[in-house]
Design goal:
With 398 residues, the chain is an alpha/beta fold. Helix 6 links the parallel strand 5 and strand 6. Helix 1 packs antiparallel against helix 8, helix 2 runs parallel beside helix 8 and helix 10 packs across helix 13. About 3% of the residues have low confidence. Bound molecules: pyridoxal-5'-phosphate (PLP).
């Protein structure tokens, strides 16, 4: 099997599982218990929180462990908006993940918030001047994702966060897809809150974190025993928190090299698909010319930061359906996603692709290939062959 759906999820790394194992078995205590078994769990949780904080560029007291990216986004959006003394206006982009879109809509429906949805260009980029213009004295929160899960667009996040800071508006970013590829640090990016999810990084499904500046009042979403300094009640999932911390620690030393290597593989793959599949349309940021490309996204100092996540190559294949291409590939042992796995089961064209200006007919034909640090050139050569053969088969049926 050639697995090219790493943006949907990744397998748990062996080292992560080994680090978690003691806290599922011998050291199974409840960190709130006042005895040795509980103390051991509490120490593990404290160490995991410290590691996550080091990687996210914040203080340990600013990390809230959650059940994943969706909960981290919910807590950020509801928590900051409902905790804020100022205004009832939220700004987001037209290509946010449903975990943000639906939460903002909840604020609109149930709490009377006004919402400004920022358009994006055909590459999926928000215009910083549009963003500045959308910020008002009563804006409670701006939430703009770091890297898009469907087309891989990487926003100029530090510049956008600076605009929010100038306007005094709290800024949250969904960094679920960026983590593992780009630096995701509150201090370096200048953001106030940032969500990550473990299962995109080799930790299990069902764990994530929200890093949020302590100065922001945060209204909890889950009420109860007051764990996580009151921000998220419920007995802490110690083993999974340890897993998340371990996955972040393992990813970091080789992250920049993996990003550069996978970026090069990705670009060769994109060129091969465009050359071999007649009518294929690359979605998201265009392929930078080799001369203009720098080695890694958001590297700073380079004139042309790559606005595409190293791992994402997404296309439309007009005249097909995304689902039929996915099946053709699966028959040949290549696993991909049609549209977004997070909106699985929906027949509607992706709102993200529509926001990029694609027509509903073309958007229905979307297929996303997402690479991992383990993807090889041979995997991608094989995937291109399978894709060309699969699409030829589909054309011969028409
Ligand atoms: N945000 C983005 C950008 C995602 O891609 C995803 C999942 O794919 C999520 C949030 C939700 O994360 P989780 O699956 O951990 O709830």
């Amino acid at each position: 099997m050639i697995y090219l759906d790493a943006a949907a999820t990744t397998p748990v790394k062996r080292e992560v599982l080994e680090a978690m194992w003691p806290y599922l078995t011998g050291d199974f205590g409840n960190p709130s218990s006042h005895h040795g078994v509980g103390d051991s769990a509490a120490r593990a949780l404290t160490a995991a929180r410290r590691t996550v904080a080091e990687h996210l560029g914040c203080r340990p007291g600013e990390v809230v462990f959650t059940s994943g990216g969706t909960e981290a986004d919910n807590l950020a959006v509801k928590g900051i908006a409902l905790g804020a003394p100022r205004g009832r206006h939220v700004v987001l982009s037209a290509i946010e993940h449903p975990a943000v879109v639906e939460t903002v809509d909840h604020l609109r429906r149930l709490h009377g918030f006004e919402v400004t949805v920022l358009p994006v260009d055909s590459a999926g980029l928000v215009d910083p001047d549009d963003f500045s213009r959308a910020l008002r004295p009563d804006t409670t929160l701006a939430t703009l994702m770091y890297a898009n899960n469907e087309v891989g667009t990487v926003q100029p996040l530090a510049a956008l966060a600076a605009r929010a800071r100038e306007a005094g508006v709290p800024f949250h970013t969904d960094a679920v897809q960026a983590a593992g590829w780009l630096p995701v640090r509150l201090d370096a990016l200048g953001v106030d809150a940032l969500s990550i999810s473990g299962h995109k990084l080799g930790a299990p499904k069902g764990v994530g974190a929200l890093a949020v500046r302590q100065r922001l009042p945060l209204e909890p979403v889950l009420h109860g025993g007051g764990q996580e300094r009151g921000a998220r009640s419920g007995t802490e999932n110690v083993a999974f928190a340890v897993g998340l911390a371990t996955a972040l620690r393992l990813a970091e030393p080789g992250r920049a090299d993996a990003a550069a290597r996978v970026t090069a593989l990705r670009d060769d793959f994109i060129r091969a698909v465009l050359a071999r599949v007649p009518g294929a349309v690359l979605t998201g940021p265009p392929l930078a010319s080799d001369a203009a490309r720098i080695t890694s996204p958001q590297a700073g100092g380079g004139a042309h930061p790559d606005p595409r996540l190293p791992s994402v190559a997404s296309f439309c294949f007009p005249g097909t359906s995304g689902e039929s291409v996915l099946l053709q590939l699966e028959e040949r042992g290549v696993i991909v996603s049609s549209g977004s796995a997070c909106a699985a089961g929906s027949d509607e064209p992706s709102p993200v692709l529509l926001a990029l200006g694609l027509t509903p007919d073309v958007a229905q034909t979307a297929v996303r290939f997402t690479l991992s640090p383990d993807t090889t050139a041979a995997d991608l050569t094989s995937a291109v062959d399978s894709l060309a053969a699969g699409i030829a088969d589909l054309s011969s049926l028409r």
